[in-house]
Amino acid sequence: MSILFSGRVTSGASAHKISPGRRFIMFWVNHVRQALFSLGELWRTPSASILTIGVLGVSLTLPATLHLLVKNVQQVSDSFTQAAEISLFIKADASATQISSLHKILQADNAVARVSHISKQQALEEFGQVSGFGAALNYLTDNPLPDVLLVLPKNTAADSARQLLERLSKERIVEFGKLDIDWLTRLDAIVSLLRQAVLVIAILLLGAVLLIIGNTIRLSIMNKKDEIEVMKLVGATDAFIQRPFLYSGIWYGVFGGLLAFLIVEAMLWWLQGAIVSVTSLYGSEFRLMALSVSEFFSLMLLAVVLGLSGSYLSVRRHISAIEPTGP
Q: Is the distance from CB of 146 to CB of 90 less than 8 angstroms?
């Protein structure tokens, strides 16, 4: 009898045992249900939700805009590779063979990207066109301008370009070399300063986002204090109670990130028209660089992480402190 009873009990227990596959499905179904429930909570409190999402979106807009500013300034800086071009002024007594030989040597140099030769006659013609003294220059008996070799370094950084200038200036037929790169060095310093400013401002604003979301979740927890006490009385764990609030933080991050992206795109669209009208006066086709796909996903990931982190810090502190009171 005991063996039979034991077998029945074992059979009954195995009949109610949940398989791992079903447990896995129930786990994700439960998470989806709580995620949708938290989204519904945001929908049921539109004023507070819109205000929080708006603050989050605007807070993320400023560092994103500053990042684009640095990105576009860097684009302008990179387009000025000609600023690192070295001008080698050839001695007046150098022969055409010597100039041609130096030209070939420089073309084979690993540190040189491009070499071009401007002859005396070409330099005089260009000077006449630019200065407007073309007719007066015809009265010159001798051409006072030297031959020039324009050398573009492969590495256009200021220090590397200066080192190359010093080396090439020592060539036998070179009178002297010239490199006007000081202004580009100042531009690089400004870009570096902007990067540091973006980092500092981003840290401050992201810290503010954490506080805003944490405070929003804290108010939501306080409003549902009675419900949380009842849930704990019937045996709900802290993790189960915390989950909807964590999903609320994630939803705040998703919508806040999307709002920041839309604001940045609207600003770029508005500014592009003004920039085109200015650059057209100078015959330039400069266009603002928008957020790339990877930068968009990085922005969304950052917003979600901030939303989740802010809500996590809040629920870990406040939900554990709520305990059901006795009758």
A: yes
